[in-house]
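Methods — Computational structure assignment.
A single polypeptide chain was analysed. Its primary sequence is given first, followed by the predicted tertiary structure written as structure tokens.
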Amino acid sequence: MIALKGVTVRYGAETALDRLSLDLPDDRTAVIGVSGCGKTTLLRVLGGLLTPQEGTLTWNGLPWARARPITGFVLQSLGLFPWKTVRQNVDLGLPAALPRTEREDRVEAILAELGLGAVASKYPHQLSGGQAQRTAIARCLVGRPALLLLDEPTAALDALTREAFQDWLLEVLARHPSTMVMVTHSIEEAVLLGTTLVAMGGGRPPRLLSSPFAGRPASRAHQDFAPFCQTVREALSGGSP
């Protein structure tokens, strides 16, 4: 469980998060809202890249600085080093003190599992969009994180690749359970990947919605999928959730 109490983040005179209080479950949370509502700022706070000016964060009841969960962060830009191969980029997700043999075993295992073995010696500029996304995910998962943060993980993909990647990601998350917090602009993606949704923006407190698919895989073809997307849309526009 992640708990935020009165978290405030300011960039100079601009307030990105204003006394934000949220309780996020130990599952998959999708944060959705318009640009500028503080979604990515929230993710950066959870990732330790920003320190709030006010408020507190706890992880399973412990202060964040004390608990400090092992965290994997997939940036919107992916953050792959262009001068390193896929294998070398994935290796960066492991602690420096890990013995060499174990490093190699874990890297090769995650490359094989995520279908990257054939491109392991290629450089980021030689990869397709989907391969680059999978490489960024592999770099996070190889470190076995307790907390996985995803910032717009499919924003750079075309529509068909995006759908295939979303389905693939659901399968990967089922095999590598962790607390996930994902930021997205897509209502459909939030409903597909999140078991809890946070609707932010409009000057209102964030709204938490529980997915009707919690406990089972979501499906675009399910009869509840479109109605729940509409529920989220109403929550974002200020209507009754």
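Note: Residues 174 and 191 are 16 Å apart (CA to CA).
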